[in-house]
């Protein structure tokens, strides 16, 4: 959902990406690593928080079997009530640097997309 709107593919390419496994845990663009709203439900007003929590767990390497290897960046996107949308990007802090940790202290919401290191 919203993969083309976020610029990850052209409109209409989403289905092929899903079918070829590009959006799976081991794919080049893992999406909804916790199953998204279909698996977790839609807690109105709180789904963004649930998905931000998944992003943080991925970046900390705490997702067990659904862990994205070498997760470094997490993009969250939410689209809700008419005219409401938000996008947020989290980056894993580099170890040992207080300044690096401060850089990552941003607030972000919803839609889990992870990009693996190149």
Biggest sheet character: 3 strands, antiparallel
**SS field, number of helical segments:** 4
Q: Got a strand count?
A: 3
Strand order of the largest sheet: 2-1-3
Number of domain units: 1
Nearest-integer average pLDDT? 78
Query: What integer value in Å does the Rg equal?
Result: 14 Å
Helical fraction: 25-40%
Overall morphology: globular
Question: Ranges with pLDDT <50 over ≥5 residues?
Answer: 104-118
Strand content: 15-25%
Broad structural category: alpha+beta
Task: Give the ordered list of helices and strands.
Answer: HHHEEHE
Distance between the termini: 24 Å
Descriptive overview:
The structure is a single chain. This protein has 118 residues and is an alpha+beta fold. The chain has one domain. 26% of the residues lie in helices and 17% in strands. It has four helices and three strands, in the order H-H-H-E-E-H-E. It has a three-stranded antiparallel sheet with strand order 2-1-3, with helices on one face. The longest helix has 14 residues, at 47-60. The radius of gyration is 14 Å and the shape is globular.
Concise account of the structure shown:
With 118 residues, this protein is an alpha+beta fold. The protein has helices spanning 14-19, 36-40, 47-60, 98-103; strands at 71-79, 85-91, 113-116. Strand 1 (71-79) and strand 2 (85-91) form a beta hairpin.
List the helices and strands and how they pair.
Elements: H1 14-19, H2 36-40, H3 47-60, E1 71-79, E2 85-91, H4 98-103, E3 113-116
Antiparallel strand pairs: 1-2, 1-3
